[in-house]
TrEMBL record, chain A:
<protein>
    <submittedName>
        <fullName>Unannotated protein</fullName>
    </submittedName>
</protein>
Length: 45, 326
C-alpha cells in the first residue's frame, strides 16, 4: 500500500512539475524590434 | 462551370471571390443541403447562375473547389476520374499526403489537382516562392499561423494541438509533440504577438514538396493555455461560426552573397478570407488556362505560376506586409 502511495505521489509531483514547466516556460523572442511595411510585388504579371 | 463543394464560411467566401473575378456559372453542393440552399440566393442575379446540386451532378463541372472539411482525397479521386480539375483547401496532414499520392492518376487523366490552396498551406507557398527570389539560395522556412476560419478549421486547429508535429530538419522528418516548442511570433498589425507552438499541420510537407532544397521547415500555430490543456479532450464548447482576425507569416532564411539573411512576410486578415482568395485565384488561373501543369501540385512549386497567383491574391485586397528593421 505504501509503495502504491509513493508511486502515486511521485507521479503527481512529476505531473505538477511538468504542467508548471509547460505553462510557465518563457517564450523565445525571435524578433524584438522593427515593424511591418507593405510588400512590394513585381509589377509585371 | 465551377463547382464548389461546401457552403460554409469558406465556401461562401470562395463563391464571392469567384463572382468578383467575373465567373457566372456555378454548381454548389453541401452535405447539408439547406446550407447550399441558403447561400445560393444571396449571390444569384441576372448574370450569375448558381445551381444547388447533389454530389453526383457535380461531374458537369470543369473545375471543382473543395472547401468542405477534410478528408478531400476520395472526393478528389472521383472528380479527377470524371475529368475535372480539382482545387483542394485541405490542411490535414494525412489528407494532403493522400491527395499528393493522386499525382499519377491526375497526370494519367491530364488533370490538375492543386493540394492545399488555402491560407496555410497555400498562401505560405506563394510567399515562400516570392521570398526565394530575394536570396541567392534559401535553406530554412518557418511558418506561423494565428486564428481559425470556420468551424471545421477550428476543429482542425484543436486536433492539430493534440497530435504529433512533423518538421523537416537537416534532411529528415522530425516528430515532436504538438503543443511544444513555444515561440513568440509577431504578426502584422492588428494581430501583434502571440505564443505559437508546434502542431500537426500540413505546411512542412507541402513546402518541402514545393522547395525540396530547404533544409529546415517548421510550422507553428498560436494557442492559449486553455487550448493546450484541453487539446487531448473533445472540444468543450462548439466552435464559433467564424474565428476573429487571423494572421499568417513565413520566415525564410538563406544566403545573400556571402552573408546569411532572413526575411519575414505576413498577412493579417480573417483566415477564411485569406484561404478563399487563394483558392479563388488558383481556380481562376485554371479556368483561364494559365496553369499548364497536370498532376498533383502545391502552391509555391516550380510548376505553378506563383508570381502571377500572388499578384492576383494582392489584387483581391490582401495586404501583404514585410517585417523590417530587426
Amino acid at each position: 500500500m505504501n509503495f502504491i502511495r509513493r508511486v502515486l505521489m511521485v507521479l503527481g509531483i512529476a505531473g505538477a512539475a511538468g504542467a508548471i514547466l509547460r505553462l510557465k516556460g518563457r517564450s523565445v523572442h525571435t524578433t524584438r524590434q522593427g515593424g511591418w511595411k507593405p510588400l512590394q510585388l513585381p509589377s509585371d504579371k | 462551370m465551377i463547382a464548389i463543394v461546401g457552403a460554409g464560411v469558406t465556401g461562401a467566401r470562395v463563391l464571392e471571390q469567384l463572382i468578383r473575378l467575373g465567373h457566372t456559372d456555378f454548381l454548389l453542393h453541401d452535405r447539408e443541403e439547406f446550407r447550399a440552399e441558403l447561400l445560393a440566393p444571396k449571390h444569384r442575379s441576372s448574370t450569375t447562375n448558381i445551381s444547388v446540386v447533389r454530389k453526383r451532378n457535380l461531374v458537369q463541372a470543369h473545375v471543382v473547389v473543395l472547401t468542405c472539411g477534410a478528408p478531400h482525397n476520395e472526393l478528389a479521386l472521383s472528380f479527377v476520374q470524371t475529368g475535372a480539375h480539382v482545387v483542394s483547401m485541405s490542411d490535414d496532414v494525412d489528407d494532403t499526403t493522400a491527395l499528393l499520392d493522386l499525382n499519377d492518376l491526375a497526370t494519367q487523366h491530364n488533370r490538375l489537382l492543386v493540394v492545399g490552396a488555402a491560407a496555410s498551406p497555400g498562401l505560405t507557398g506563394l510567399l515562400l516562392a516570392h521570398l526565394s527570389t530575394q536570396f541567392d539560395s534559401i535553406d530554412e522556412a518557418h511558418v506561423a499561423v494565428h486564428g481559425t476560419g470556420g468551424p471545421d478549421c477550428a476543429r482542425q486547429h484543436h486536433s492539430a494541438l493534440a497530435g504529433s508535429s512533423v518538421g523537416w530538419h537537416d534532411g529528415s522528418w522530425l516528430r515532436r509533440p504538438s503543443g511544444s516548442g513555444r515561440e513568440l511570433c509577431w504578426f502584422p498589425e492588428p494581430v501583434g504577438a502571440y505564443d505559437c507552438y508546434r502542431a500537426e499541420v500540413a505546411d512542412p510537407a507541402l513546402l518541402h514538396r514545393a522547395m525540396p532544397q530547404l533544409q529546415r521547415i517548421s510550422a507553428r500555430i498560436s494557442a492559449t493555455r486553455r487550448d493546450r490543456f484541453t487539446a487531448r479532450l473533445p472540444m468543450l464548447a462548439p466552435p464559433n461560426a467564424e474565428g476573429g482576425m487571423g494572421a499568417v507569416r513565413i520566415e525564410v532564411r538563406g544566403m545573400r552573397g556571402v552573408s546569411r539573411a532572413m526575411e519575414i512576410v505576413g498577412v493579417a486578415e480573417r483566415l477564411a478570407h485569406i484561404a478563399a482568395i487563394v483558392a479563388a485565384t488558383t481556380t481562376h488561373a485554371i479556368v483561364n488556362d494559365n496553369i499548364s501543369a497536370v498532376g498533383a501540385h502545391v502552391l509555391g512549386g516550380s510548376e505553378m505560376p506563383n508570381a502571377q497567383l500572388l499578384r492576383g491574391v494582392a489584387d483581391a485586397g490582401l495586404h501583404i506586409h514585410q517585417f523590417v528593421g530587426a
